[in-house]
């Protein structure tokens, strides 16, 4: 399975430098509409209070009810520096110290937030944590997807307090416009594809995180098949035969001929309606075939393509709708 672990950061500081020209910008509470993956947020800043006096607090972004975001825009030197700090303000205590026994019987000690990160590797652990500590996984997940530095940077650009970072492609496009050199059709297409690719990467990462409750590989070994509540064992009274059991009742058997057993050592073969292969003396079965036979529940499985194929599918669909004469393969990620 492809799994990612996210770490909860309650307080963090990040610094970026921007070359500053002109006079020191004056604080403004102006509202700026910013675009985040196609969604518009009207963000603004207010003066910080208490320990954040002298800082500014960003408001209006997605997730502000969970995370308070502060930034300090320093313009005293030749370079402008923006520092960021964030604090969790939701209703749950992710810093609570707990101990947890995972599915392997190992004891973990840490904070509740850290425990969710650890248990991302074990799909059976998250429901147990939710049952014991409340339904907080969705909030923990949302909290870790808030890219507050991106919100602040777009806000500062919107009010003119920093200059936007210009990529070489954008710089070339601007220069071409100044020189009245029109972009080629290919350049226009590649420019329009940038937000499509960016969104596909974000969507893919969310799918990967949500897939922890599912089996995602195309093949399942005779030992891992227990994920589906099944067991697969070599028959004690039939040669070259494996038997699949559910609740101690045999529901299917895979009987190799001598020739098929030999071929399965080096290639995929079809035996009793199931594609199988043998690797390191272990039998591997095709999940799709087991689903087709009704041996495993399709709702326990999630097919996830590789990230490149996922983005290329998004590119293909976009081009078919907007540039039907373009060849999608010319724009696929390699």
Description:
The protein has helices at 112-119, 125-133, 137-143, 148-158, 168-178, 185-210, 258-263, 287-292, 307-322, and strands at residues 13-19, 32-36, 39-47, 56-59, 67-74, 79-88, 97-101, 107-111, 219-221, 230-234, 241-246, 249-255, 269-271, 274-279, 282-286. With 334 residues, the protein is of the alpha+beta class. Among the domains are: 97-135, no CATH class; 219-300, no CATH class. The strands form four sheets. Strands 1-6-5-4-3-2 form a six-stranded antiparallel beta sheet, with helices on one face. The chain has a four-stranded antiparallel beta sheet with strand order 9-15-14-13. A three-stranded antiparallel beta sheet has the order 10-11-12, with no helix packed on it. Helix 6 (185-210) crosses helix 9. The model is unreliable at 1-27 (pLDDT under 50).
Q: What's this model, at a glance?
A:
This protein is of the alpha+beta class and 334 residues long. It is built from nine helices and 15 strands.
Strand order of the largest sheet: 1-6-5-4-3-2
Helical/strand content category: alpha+beta
Computed Rg? 27 Å
The helix tally amounts to: 9
- Poorly predicted ranges (pLDDT <50, ≥5 residues)? 1-27
Write down how many β-strands occur, each being a DSSP E stretch of 2 or more residues.
Answer: 15
Instruction: List SSEs in N-to-C order.
Output: EEEEEEEEHHHHHHEEEEHEEEHH
């Amino acid at each position: 399975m492809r799994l990612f672990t996210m770490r909860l950061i309650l307080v963090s500081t990040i610094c970026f430098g921007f070359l500053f020209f002109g006079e020191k910008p004056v604080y403004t509470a102006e509202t700026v509409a910013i675009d985040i993956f196609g969604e518009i947020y009207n963000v603004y800043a207010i003066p910080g209070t208490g320990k954040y006096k002298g800082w500014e607090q960003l408001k209006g972004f997605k997730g502000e009810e969970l995370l308070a975001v502060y930034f300090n825009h320093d313009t005293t030197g030749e370079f402008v520096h923006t520092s960021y700090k964030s604090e969790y303000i939701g209703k749950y205590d992710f810093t609570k110290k707990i101990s947890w026994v995972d599915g392997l019987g190992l004891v973990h000690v840490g904070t509740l937030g850290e425990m969710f990160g650890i248990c991302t590797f074990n799909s059976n652990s998250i429901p147990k944590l939710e049952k014991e500590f409340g339904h907080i996984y969705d909030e923990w997940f949302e909290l870790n997807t808030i890219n507050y530095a991106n919100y602040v940077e777009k806000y500062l650009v919107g009010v003119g307090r920093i200059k936007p970072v210009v990529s070489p492609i954008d710089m070339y496009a601007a220069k071409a416009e100044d020189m009245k050199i029109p972009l080629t059709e290919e350049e226009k297409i590649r420019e329009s594809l940038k937000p499509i690719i960016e969104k596909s990467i974000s969507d893919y990462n969310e799918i990967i995180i949500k897939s922890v409750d599912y089996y995602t590989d195309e093949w399942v070994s005779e030992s891992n098949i227990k994920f589906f509540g099944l067991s697969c064992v070599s028959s004690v009274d039939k040669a070259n035969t494996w038997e699949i059991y559910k609740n101690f009742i045999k529901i299917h058997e895979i009987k190799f001929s001598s020739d098929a057993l030999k071929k399965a050592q080096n290639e995929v073969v079809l035996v009793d309606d199931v594609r199988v292969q043998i690797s390191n003396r272990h039998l591997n079965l095709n999940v799709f075939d087991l689903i087709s036979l009704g041996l495993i529940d399709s709702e326990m499985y999630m097919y996830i393509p590789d990230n490149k194929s996922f983005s290329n599918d998004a590119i293909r669909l976009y081009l078919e709708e907007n540039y039907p004469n373009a060849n999608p393969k010319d724009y696929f990620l390699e």
